[in-house]
Amino acid sequence: MPFVDVFVGDYRQRLLTLLAAVGLVLLIACATWRTCCSRAGAARARELSVRKPRSARPMRIVRQLLTESLMLALCAAGAGLLLARGLVATVVAWGPNNVPRLEQARIDPIALAFAVASRSSAASCAGWRRRYARRGTT
Length: 138
Known about the structure:
This protein is an all-alpha fold. Helix content is 80%, strand content 0%.
């Protein structure tokens, strides 16, 4: 019996459809997030333009933007982890009995660490980008 049949059984088509749906929702969420960040950045441009002439040091502004980005990333990661834990437990408890290996579903710590690290680095890049976009040099 092939490994794929043992691993996913007759749920292959359903899992691929679910993967496509999750990817589409993630793409829509990323586009929405980017739009919200762009609007928030435009709204903050006035505040930053007022703070700079009032002797706010550039590194202080950079630290503020990076701190805000990292805190937002960590809060989002925490909320995502709580949501994922609840959804995994719900799917395992309410899922059909004939789904192969469903009872072994869990949140992988290595994948979680990678997700948090990549989100934090993306937030850092976004904080730096906001700083340099304000100066006109991206």
